[in-house]
Amino acid sequence: MSESADGPELKYSRVLLKLSGEALAGQQGFGISPPVVDRLVDEVKILHEMGVSVALVIGGGNIVRGTQASAQGMDRVSADYMGMLATVINALAMQDLLERKGVVTRVMTAIRMEAVAEPYIRRRALRHLEKGRVVIFAAGTGNPYFSTDTAAVLRAIEVHADVLIKATKVEGVYTADPEKDPAAEFIPAIGYHDVIARDLRVMDAAAISLCRDNAVPIIVLNINNPGAVAGAVRGRQMGTLVS
Ligand code: UDP
User: Fold this and answer.
1) 30, 123, 162, 184: which could form a disulfide with 178 (CB 3.0–4.6 Å)?
2) What is the pLDDT of residues 6-59, one digit of tens each?
3) Half-sphere exposure at residue 19, Cβ-oriented, CA atoms within 13 angstroms
4) How far apart are CA 108 and CA 88, in angstroms?
5) Is residue 44 within a helix (H) or strand (E), and if so which, with residue range?
């Protein structure tokens, strides 16, 4: 907690951190890897101890992805609901580990399931954040045909987050997929329009447009670099800034 007095050093005081489901799976690519989640939780805990107001949106791609399930013949809407439920599983895993490390959290779901978590009510979410609780938004937007990236932008706008940090496995945004194209070049900063026009796949187009229309800056960074998120929140150049 010694760093909580560093408030003035913070560039962003309220952060929405988007973690993909894959980020929880680690090398295995599927399901939840406890040591990997443990490390992610440490990153969140550092932010919390710095006095940052933290909201999380977690994906579900490590369990179910609606588009993939529907490509295999499943009804798209059912598959999307399965994907949204997958995000709740991930949210509960994050909550459990965060609380074991002494961070007070609330999971709020966009689909009502009161026995498991609170329903998402914006004013209540704001109250939790004001009280210093880490709020984990689960079940995406609650609607099929959307992504958790769009949910992340929506919640970032609703809770007045100063920045949306998208945690990935690569350093930031590149001119092409760096895992496939060795000639891909890193881009330190870029505008929303260019991301869409150049089809850079930072997030889906709906999510980027929503950010642009509401002037929410996005930082895309590598969550596997310890301290990257904390550095970004202090205003250091980390990953790619989309604004
Ligand atoms: N999903 C949805 N509506 C939402 C958010 C998510 O239908 O508002 C479904 C969709 O099927 C998606 C799945 O949940 O494929 C998991 O979310 P996502 O693919 O965004 O997770 P990530 O890629 O971040 O792990």
Assistant:
1) 184
2) 445 899 999 999 999 999 998 888 999 999 999 999 999 999 999 999 999 999
3) 31
4) 9
5) helix 34-49
